[in-house]
Amino acid sequence: xxxxxxxxxxxxxxxxxxxxxxxxxxxxxxxxxxxxxxxxxxxxxxxxxxxxxxxxxxxxxxxxxxxxxxxxxxxxxxxxxxxxxxxxxxxxxxxxxxxxxxxxxxxxxxxxxxxxxxxxxxxxxxxxxxxxxxxxxxxxxxxxxxxxxxxxxxxxxxxxxxxxxxxxxxxxxxxxxxxxxxxxxxxxxxxxxxxxxxxxxxxxxxxxxxxxxxxxxxxxxxxxxxxxxxxxxxxxxxxxxxxxxxxxxxxxxxxxxxxxxxxxxxxxxxxxxxxxxxxxxxxxxxxxxxxxxxxxxxxxxxxxxxxxxxxxxxxxxxxxxxxxxxxxxxxxxxxxxxxxxxxxxxxxxxxxxxxxxxxxxxxxxxxxxxxxxxxxxxxxxxxxxxxxxxxxxxxxxxxxxxxxxxxxxxxxxxxxxxxxxxxxxxxxxxxxxxxxxxxxxxxxxxxxxxxxxxxxxxxxxxxxxxxxxxxxxxxxxxxxxxxxxxxxxxxxxx
Length: 494
Known about the structure:
The chain is α/β, with parallel strands linked by helices. It folds into 2 domains: 11-216, Maf protein, CATH 3.90.950.20; 247-435, Rossmann fold (3-Layer(aba) Sandwich). The chain has helices at 17-26, 42-50, 66-73, 84-101, 160-180, 185-191, 218-227, 245-249, 266-280, 298-301, 309-321, 334-342, 355-361, 373-382, 414-425, 441-450, 463-470, and strands at residues 30-37, 57-61, 111-120, 131-138, 147-155, 201-209, 233-236, 242-243, 253-258, 290-297, 325-329, 349-354, 386-391, 393-394, 401-402, 426-428.
């Protein structure tokens, strides 16, 4: 059975695994190596069974023993073998061998490839479901440099044999997609789930690189993973490449700032900088172990209807230019974000919020789907070592400043709020910049749209120039560069 993803081909048109493998095998130009570690040789098995494999498979190997694996691919300095770095070594080593052992003069039309995976399936105690790295390095033209697809998967099945079967299916889909769908990367991504039920496996990271993917922005591919329901959260770094959450968050202190960042303003950066300073002074947080994340929720991206990919890319471009790590998540409620982070670290977690965000946390309408309601949500939110850093809100009409001391919640929530506040979980940010409290991102966009001046000084240094240079959020070189007294206000990010 195959799952139906948005925009996917009809079930009747999905090629069988045998037909996919056979089409590869019968292509006289496709030739390469299969290197699989940790879950049997499940992918290459499909190609052996399909027929005609002698014209496709140069070598199939499985270096299970760690010492033997080190002798082939080099020693892992961290002693870990189910890692991206191990997969990259495998792909590089096997590709080099193909080039060394097969003459281009003798095989001028060959399209060489290396498929590899390094996987840990479920353990005997069934405490860890298992995960793995899967990748392919391939040529789409004989004289062309290699293109590459690398992805990370998490198993959801609770049986090692079933996980092996799923891995073999995924690998076959990947190889087929690389050769026959590389010009449609979004569809290639969807087709990875051909003949795989969505509750069997999670793909939480993927990166495309090489000449066939020059036009692919991996941040946009991250967004596709979320839109297709393949994962609940993705992360990418300042360089625009996707990052595995487990790698960047493992045993780290995490400070997360949720916002729309449309566009990122001085207030957003002041929230980040002031909360970071206070977080580092909280006693258990060390700078070398701190990871800061700017988070955008999928519901925020859908605020105006369907997800606008161009709008998403504009936000991402600005945050990356500021050197930030970005998370896109499907966590509408904060407790789900905290649960996710707690999967990877047991160290202290900090959340940076505006007043409106904190008020929303105490709104019971967000927790009707939980049997325990808001109390269950708060139990999930605060049972770990969590701190919330509250950025004040200025009422531009009255001049009143809202902090944790005068914040108003529903009367029925007052006692819960008091417990939350006086139990040391809530900390006011006190060293904020009072001169920028009036900045609202929505007013930046309004000024741009209406051709008004003064919006540049509401943004971090260099952001206005980048927006003009790349025509972000409808701004171009003709946008006003004159300044006027600031009269707009920055909203606390939702």
